[in-house]
């Protein structure tokens, strides 16, 4: 499995969610709505989920094992950092 494209959309409002990401796998399969979250121990990803009737959130699509999750997370967070570095820093104008 190769992740052949990563699209990052930064979230403008303040909060723990920093971006929403779509990945393409092997140029054949897309997973939308992966979230980049700022946690107590740093950034991590949350896979797309849906609220169940019992109020719990359940992943709609997710890796089967931790090695795959870590690989996907590493690729997404690397791209997220690139997007942050490419965006211009806003400078306040002097009054």
From TrEMBL:
Task: Print the keywords alphabetically.
Answer: Cell cycle, Cell division, Septation
Q: Which domain of life is it from?
A: Bacteria
What is the stated purpose of this protein?
Answer: Could be involved in septation.
- The species this protein was found in: Blautia pseudococcoides
Q: Which family does it belong to?
A: Belongs to the SpoVG family.
Q: What is this protein called?
A: Putative septation protein SpoVG
Q: Name one GO biological process term.
A: division septum assembly
Q: Tell me the NCBIfam families matching this sequence.
A: PRK13259.1
Which HAMAP family does the UniProt record give? SpoVG
> Gene of origin?
spoVG
Query: InterPro entries, alphabetically?
Result: SpoVG, SpoVG_sf
Q: Which Pfam families does the record associate with it?
A: SpoVG (PF04026)
């Amino acid at each position: 499995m190769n992740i052949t494209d990563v699209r990052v959309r930064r979230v403008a409002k303040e909060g723990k969610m920093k971006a929403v990401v779509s990945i393409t796998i092997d140029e054949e399969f897309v997973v939308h709505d992966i979230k980049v979250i700022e946690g107590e121990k740093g950034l991590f990803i949350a896979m797309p989920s849906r609220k169940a009737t019992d109020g719990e959130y359940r992943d709609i699509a997710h890796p089967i094992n931790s090695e795959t999750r870590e690989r996907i997370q590493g690729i997404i967070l690397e791209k997220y950092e690139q997007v942050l570095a490419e965006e211009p820093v806003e400078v306040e104008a002097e009054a």
